[in-house]
Amino acid sequence: MSSSTEILERIERALNKAVDVLAQFVSGSVKADRKPSDGSLVTEADRSVNRVLQEFLVQGQDGWLSEETTDDFERLKKHRVWIVDPLDGTSEFAAGIPEWSISVAMVEGGKAIVGGVCNPATREIFLGSKETGVTYNGKQAYTSKKDRLEGAVVLASLTEVRRGEWERFQQSSFLIHPMGSVAYKLARVAAGLADATWTLSPKNEWDVAAGVALVEAAGGYVQFLPNSQPRFNKKNTLLPGLFACDPFLKDQITSLLAHPPDNKTCNRTES
């Protein structure tokens, strides 16, 4: 049984190798195709990073779940499973927006115990486990300890904002910052670079497993909507929306999402 430290070292090596592979691709100049299965975007960069991560991460009896690998359900028999998104935010990557990331989590018994998220475009790497805490670019990091939503920085889904799903929050007392890649948003909350994030739309396990591991490792709180704790390595990988924050904000966000304001004016969003 590998320790959290050894798993983190393996994740860091794999992420560094993935960054090397990505150097051959130019964000904003990569051809993106639609997958026949669900119409989502995929590039050759996604596939290349997927191959590298699987090669460097999987050992022994480890299971594997990735957005870019056909799921054979053998992972359901495994106690430890890698859950990976080679490129979370493919649309941002293809558009040249530096809000995408590589997301890697180790799940044990359904719990995300170790996570790593890397944004090569901004040269940021977030690593963490409950045993070691979280590091941001090699330095220890913590959630923000913000205890009031007033004045808080909340990271919103760029797609959800564009669809108008955050209009109900525009007159709230917090600052909304739209951003791509849910893994990157969760990592930033874990490192105290933002106070909270939530997504109102379902996500797949590979989108959020690493970010959940990081937030919890930093002492933060994660809840799937409306009221359940994160569990992974299920047959159906689709999960409900979720929120993540410092525990001080848990009750305020729970109340807000249960009874959101009905506002139409948009003047609190930061682009």
Fraction of residues in helix: 25-40%
Structural class: alpha+beta
Overall shape = globular
H/E element string?
A: HEEHEEHEEEEEEHEHEEHEEEH
Distance between the termini: 45 Å
Structure description:
The N and C termini lie far apart (45 Å). The protein is 28% helix and 27% strand. The model is unreliable at 264-271 (pLDDT under 50). The chain contains seven helices and 16 strands. A hairpin with a 4-residue loop joins strand 6 and strand 7 (124-129). It is globular, with a radius of gyration of 18 Å. It has a seven-stranded mixed sheet, sandwiched between helices. A five-stranded mixed sheet has the order 11-10-12-16-14. A two-stranded antiparallel sheet has the order 1-2. The protein folds into two domains: 4-141, Fructose-1,6-Bisphosphatase, subunit A, domain 1 (Fructose-1,6-Bisphosphatase, Chain A, domain 1); 153-258, D-Maltodextrin-Binding Protein, domain 2. With 271 residues, it is of the alpha+beta class.
Task: Indicate the topology.
Blueprint (H helix, E strand, L loop, with lengths): L3 H19 L10 E2 L6 E2 L1 H14 L5 E4 L13 E9 L1 H6 L5 E8 L2 E9 L4 E6 L3 E4 L2 E3 L11 E5 H5 L12 E5 L2 H9 L5 E4 L3 E2 H13 L3 E4 L13 E2 L2 E4 L4 H9 L13
Parallel strand pairs: 3-4, 10-11, 10-12
Antiparallel strand pairs: 1-2, 4-5, 5-6, 6-7, 7-8, 8-9, 12-16, 13-15, 14-16
